[in-house]
Q: What sequence folds into this?
């Protein structure tokens, strides 16, 4: 641990592009993830943000936490706006109206802005092949408006629009697999990340923005407010999501799958679920159902990884 | 040397966009706008226009991509119509508040349902309050000239607002007219290169589009109102300078044979040209009728309008849109309110017609004028009438 403290500051950028003093909730996993992502982006980047927690907490006029050029326009159009930024920069550089400096274009949105309302714009931008990185900060519900369910809310979670009750377990659908949807566009780089694994996250952001063409990174962002968990457990819960196989960390580079954090022996999903109030109502039977689903999904992912390794050799 | 050529109006817009040397065009196909963007894509594909053409997956994304391109300082153009303009609706407000000088040609079209691909002004009226500068063209030459003027106005540092050029779907977009097409060297005299004052740039990071709490939102809207109202002076200057260079002058409100006219008809877009024929023939019969063409829709030209109608007893307003369950057409409503405070004002009678591509011929306009006179003389309290309904 001592050595860690000595080396870490040397391994990451000191510059804070996402400045402190913003109004995120205590223990916000998303603010942590944005901070880490910005460290990996460097200074020559333009951020296009969808409506959501980040715009609300960080940019109340006339204040801003952003030390990078930043634009927010609407909820569902971050990918489309980023397309315009990228195309505009390209045309202006080509026509000598801007210096020929590489500027990284990064779109950021929550799970609602990505997998629900912004899915069409995202699909269009990925399909057109713009050179940009899209980061989805997934806190598994519409947290900004008060914990309403999204298509990224996991099975069994209680939210304000899919509440657990006598006749319902809350969310009755399984989480939409956004990274798979992004990968289906045959883009060069797709990855999952979690701020509980900062070096893994930063390496992926760096790789994503450096890859020519579109890249997509899906970051699990623990939300103590919406998940009904203790705010000092953000990092631990993120690690448990990975260690239980609920949110595996992998990347898909040119179609090839690789687990970046391999967990040889998965912990039981109960370890993850029990720390969160949103799953408190689940029966043993339901927990088992989730466990079975995770086992199957994880095995499938491992198969893809094995298949990719075979192709490599 | 400027040449007058027979050309489809949509194609002349593409040429104007090329002459303006735009950097980004982002558009989605919709009838009757498609010829504009088809031609632009062809110019880009042939290397005649060096621009990034973004073939987006919806109009919502078309306008969103325009926001991004304009925010990095690119000269940006798009075109749409009808449902496309509706799908862009929320994005339009962002463009104007964020001072992004995007230029858009709108091939005005009716709104669903029932689906109609043909022209009227329902789409325009629905985006009336989005904070854009809005100019109506009545013919091909006006369209071509005003697309060039639009860039000049939008990008003026005193303005920095997006501009819509309205042209009637099919009735203008698809007709071939003789149009003076300017040379690039001539356009350069009128349209300076675009220098956006504060683009997104890592060397000068700015935050665009932050959250406005209640303690500041009202002030942001006041600023927008002051900005759009003040844009009128710049529009007038741009039109004057355009006229001085090219010999064609434009104004917010154009009067046609209004000398001594007691009855005036007001129309917008291509229909005003048809109405001219009706006014001509009625004048020949000795009737004191005139025509007003409202060219500048936003910012609304209050002073010019009041001046133009001051001697009339009756003002007939033709709307190509209907405010259901309301006072009739939106243009007539606005004109009533613009004149209400005057001591002496003409009686305003609204007509709603020309919906969904229904043509109003010169004899139709004669009927409208005669009917208007009849209503006026009868002293009726009737707010408006729908013209040409088959019963």
A:
């Amino acid at each position: 641990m001592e050595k860690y403290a000595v080396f870490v500051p040397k391994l990451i950028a000191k510059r804070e592009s996402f400045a402190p003093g913003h109004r995120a909730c205590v223990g916000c996993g998303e603010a942590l993830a944005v901070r880490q992502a910005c460290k990996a982006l460097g200074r020559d980047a333009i951020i296009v943000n969808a409506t959501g927690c980040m715009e609300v907490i960080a940019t109340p006029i006339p204040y801003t936490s952003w030390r990078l050029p930043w634009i927010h326009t609407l909820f569902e159009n971050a990918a489309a706006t980023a397309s315009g930024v990228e195309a505009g920069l390209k045309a202006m550089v080509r026509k000598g109206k801007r210096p020929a400096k590489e500027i990284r274009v990064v779109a950021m949105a929550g799970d609602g802005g990505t997998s629900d309302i912004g899915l069409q714009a995202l699909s269009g931008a990925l399909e057109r092949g713009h050179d940009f990185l899209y980061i989805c900060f997934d806190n598994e519900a519409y947290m900004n408006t008060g914990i309403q369910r999204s298509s990224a809310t996991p099975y069994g979670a209680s939210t304000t629009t899919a509440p657990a009750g006598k006749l319902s377990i809350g969310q009755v659908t399984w989480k939409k697999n956004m990274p798979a949807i992004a990968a289906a566009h045959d883009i060069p780089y797709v990855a999952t990340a979690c701020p509980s694994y900062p070096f893994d996250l930063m390496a992926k952001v760096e790789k994503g923005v450096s890859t020519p063409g579109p890249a997509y990174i899906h970051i699990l962002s623990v939300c103590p407010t919406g998940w009904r968990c203790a705010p000092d457990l953000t990092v631990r819960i993120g690690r448990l999501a990975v260690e239980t196989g609920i949110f595996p960390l992998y990347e898909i580079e040119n179609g090839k799958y690789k687990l970046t954090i391999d967990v040889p022996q998965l912990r039981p999903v109960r370890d993850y679920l029990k720390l969160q109030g949103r799953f408190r109502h689940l029966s043993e039977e339901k927990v088992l159902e989730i466990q079975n689903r995770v086992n199957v999904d994880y095995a499938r992912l491992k198969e893809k990884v094995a298949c990719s390794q075979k192709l490599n050799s | 040397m400027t040449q007058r050529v027979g050309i489809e109006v949509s194609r002349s817009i593409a040429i104007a966009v090329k002459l303006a040397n735009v950097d980004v065009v982002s558009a989605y196909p919709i009838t009757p706008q498609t010829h504009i963007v088809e031609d632009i894509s062809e110019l880009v594909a042939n290397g005649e226009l060096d621009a990034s053409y973004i073939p987006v997956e919806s109009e919502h994304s078309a306008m969103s991509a325009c926001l991004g391109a304009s925010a990095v300082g690119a000269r940006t153009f798009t075109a749409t119509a009808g449902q496309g303009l509706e799908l862009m609706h929320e994005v339009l407000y962002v463009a104007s508040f964020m001072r992004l000088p995007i230029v858009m040609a709108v091939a005005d079209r009716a709104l669903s349902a029932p689906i109609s691909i043909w022209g009227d002004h329902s789409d325009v009226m629905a985006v009336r309050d989005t904070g854009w500068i809005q100019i109506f063209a009545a013919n091909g030459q006006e369209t071509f000239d005003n697309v060039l003027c639009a860039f000049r106005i939008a990008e003026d540092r005193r303005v920095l607002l997006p501009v819509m050029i309205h042209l009637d779907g099919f009735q203008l977009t698809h007709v071939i007219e003789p149009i003076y097409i300017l040379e690039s060297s001539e356009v350069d005299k009128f349209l300076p290169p675009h220098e956006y004052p504060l683009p997104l740039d890592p060397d000068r990071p700015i935050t665009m589009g932050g959250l406005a709490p209640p303690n500041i939102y009202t002030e942001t809207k006041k600023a927008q109102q002051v900005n759009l109202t003040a844009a009128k002076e710049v529009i007038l200057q741009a039109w004057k300078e355009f006229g001085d260079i090219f010999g064609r002058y434009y104004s917010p409100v154009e009067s046609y044979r209004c000398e001594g006219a007691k009855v005036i008809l007001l129309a917008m877009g291509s229909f005003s040209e048809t109405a001219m024929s009706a006014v001509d023939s009625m004048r020949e019969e000795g009737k004191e009728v005139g025509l007003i063409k409202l060219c500048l829709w936003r910012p609304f030209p209050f002073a010019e309008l009041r001046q133009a109608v001051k001697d009339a007893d009756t003002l007939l307003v033709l709307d190509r849109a209907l405010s259901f369950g309301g006072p009739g057409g939106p243009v007539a409503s606005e004109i009533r309110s613009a004149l209400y405070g005057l001591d002496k004002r003409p009686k305003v009678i609204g007509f709603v017609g020309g919906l969904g591509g229904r043509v109003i011929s010169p004899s139709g306009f004669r009927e409208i004028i005669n009917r208007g006179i009849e209503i006026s003389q009868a002293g009726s309290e009737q707010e408006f009438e729908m013209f040409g309904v088959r019963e």
